UniProtKB/TrEMBL annotation:
This is Iron(III) transport system ATP-binding protein. SUPFAM superfamilies: P-loop containing nucleoside triphosphate hydrolases. Keywords: ATP-binding, Nucleotide-binding, Transport. The keyword tRNA processing does not apply. The lineage of its organism: Bacteria, Bacillati, Bacillota, Erysipelotrichia, Erysipelotrichales.
Amino acid sequence: MLELKNIKKAYSKKPVLNDISLTIDNGEIISILGPSGSGKTTLLNIILGIVKVDEGSILCDHKDITEIPMEKRGFNIVFQDYALFPNLNAYENIVYGLKNKKDISTEEEVRELIHLLDLEPHLSKHIDQLSGGQKQRVALARTLVMKPKILLLDEPLSALDGVIKESIKKRIKDIAKEFHLTTIIVTHDPEEALTLSDRVLIINEGKISQYAKPKEIIDHPTNEFVEEFILNQLEIKRQNIISLFQPTMTFEYGESYQ
Ligand SMILES: Nc1ncnc2c1ncn2[C@@H]1O[C@H](COP(=O)(O)OP(=O)(O)OP(=O)(O)O)[C@@H](O)[C@H]1O
């Protein structure tokens, strides 16, 4: 279990996170959702260990890790731009981290992950020969072979569209469930957060607006911000789709409107 207790962070005296407390159970998929500048990446980086807190503590399985450096926390992140090595092929990227830590994953485990992510046909391709969705899967495989205790994903679907997005979403869910892997995802897209996660943490101006299961958020938004920002965005999306399929109405004098 990961616990954040009264986390505070300011940059140049400007508060960015204000008294964030929450728990994340082992094996849960959590999305951190909020508008631009609300503090999502700062929170992710604090969990990862890149950014230090000003106040508060972080506990992992009841052990205080607040002062433990990133490399010793055993968490791992897939960055938004995937950060793959362009001079290596897909397979070399996937196994790169095992060079000095061979015993973390066996060859068989690596093969299983490659299979799960459907990457067999792409292993010898160079990074610039891969599509966005394929790059994303290589980045996921590269992170997962290191068997992180917690998987952090920064806007994992933002560069993908349509069917590919749905397929990656399903793979992230399947992998998290199969490996009982605690997964924390940063996103600004309510639809993504609500369909991908067990619980969604909605933050606004550095404070928790609501932290609940997707259904609870939709049925019982606890404040105006959640209603306005999250639910209205979903409604706009829904209306846009409906309007695409509405038949053109024709009037007596030949006028029409949509
Ligand atoms: N290293 C930094 N130094 C100073 N200010 C920072 C730093 N990092 C972030 N901030 C500020 O902290 C606030 C929160 O930034 P953060 O990147 O956490 O937001 P975000 O919700 O991830 O935004 P976005 O969705 O646009 O990426 C912003 O006002 C940002 O300008």
